[in-house]
Amino acid sequence: MVVSSVADSATLPRNVDLLVVGGGINGAGIAADAAGRGLSVLLCEKSDLGGATSSASTKLIHGGLRYLEYYEFRLVRESLAERETLLSSAPHIVWPLRFRLPHQPNQRPAWMIRAGLFLYDYLGKRVTLPASKAIRFGDNSPLVAGFSKGFEYSDCWVDDARLVVLNAMQARRHGAVIRTRTACNSLSAITDAGGQSAWQATLTETDTGVRHQVSARCVVNAAGPWVSQLGKKLLPEASTEPVRLVKGSHIVVPRVYDGDEAYMLQHSDGRVIFVIPYENEFSLIGTTEQDFSDDPAEAKISPEEVTYLLDIVNQYFRKGLSEKDVKHHFSGVRPLIDEEVENASKVSRDYTLELDMAPAPLLTVYGGKITTYRRLAEAVLHKLSSVFPDMGDDWTANAQLPGGEFDSQKSLSAELSAEYPWLEPALRERWVRQYGRRVSEILAGAEDMTALGACIGPGLYACEVDYLCAQEWARSVDDILWRRTKLGLWFDDAARANLEVYLQAHATQGS
């Protein structure tokens, strides 16, 4: 079931400067950047924000250590610099993570790893993150016998789905209209009131079938894995870049080891697998890479992928895992620039922007990675400078995302503990990591736990659901349990049913 959302209630404008099609990280980032430059912006997304690829990543802000093997120095440098920018702009959902890389002599040689880590430390601007170093694994190591040497380096964790939502909120803060469950069905070239070429777009609400007509001076196709399909649908006569769809799958299991470090494991096939602490009680393991040709919305993990991930973890860790340990799994499809190489892991994670000016300005986004979404958005607006010569300057590098107006999670948690001493510590810590400074909006006027409303399921209270529906475009159970939060890891069928009933009542009261 999908309910209506207060966040979706803004009237659709008839005319905008920029129509962004696609509510993943690239689309949301472009909408935020453009709105902050003074452009009128409408973003439409056919399902939920971050509902596909952007919520199915390995949850990392990273330079891509392995990309150095393919000489992608510019991409790595740009990605490394963005780590620091995002640490500053979103300290509630981005934080440092230390990685351990056990060394196997029969895999990449030690000198190659040392050289790669040296470049990794110095290619980008490293301000807050510690440098890499060689380490030894002692008797208390969670690794199987035989692993005594390794390396340690820094990258960052990110709540990917929340990064999308925060960028959409940033866009709305600057006047953009964000409309979820709304598909772009067609484009036709027109001449606007000023005599300029523009687009007439037909948008359809996917749950009601209601259609809208919107004119836009420029359209951005940021549809992710649907980019080529959408391009051909909207403009059948236009040419599109070849895109290679690659499915990546992850599994979630009970914690494989104690400690806050993540592990990067080398596989005999040349790929690497990450094992990352996840939501306190679990480990996130991924990712696989398989070419994919079906509908990206239907991507699911295969039994072979589960076996692949379990096998490599069991080669490294003492705690043996089996299929019954898999508590959750998810898959996403990445749209990579097709370079006609056999191994999908060797395909570049860089991006390409194509601007067609006839019959009206249309910019198409191919590829990209979550770490560099902000730089991609800047590049899009730079490319559109001839279309919008009066727009504002770059601004996002020094802007904090909604809720990020604080120094550290520890300091904010202490502040909230003093102001709301009755708030359960586990709930306070989760809210700090998800909402940052905006926790105060959820708690507005509350004086004790009863003021949070009904407990709908493990750790979820009515006031949080109300906030997510009103402010963050949440409309379904999965929106809340898997994208706005990760509480789906603890919800059983009865708790999900409780949430469904609450959302239905919420929709009835709001109608």
TrEMBL record:
Q: Which parts of the chain are coiled coil?
A: none
Specify the FAD dependent oxidoreductase domain's residue ranges. Answer: 17-339
Kindly list the GO CC terms recorded for this protein: glycerol-3-phosphate dehydrogenase (FAD) complex
Give the enzyme's EC designation: 1.1.5.3
A Pfam family that this protein carries is: DAO_C
What family is this protein classified in? Belongs to the FAD-dependent glycerol-3-phosphate dehydrogenase family.
Q: What is this protein called?
A: Glycerol-3-phosphate dehydrogenase
Specify the species. Pseudohongiella acticola
* Record lineage: Bacteria, Pseudomonadati, Pseudomonadota, Gammaproteobacteria, Pseudomonadales
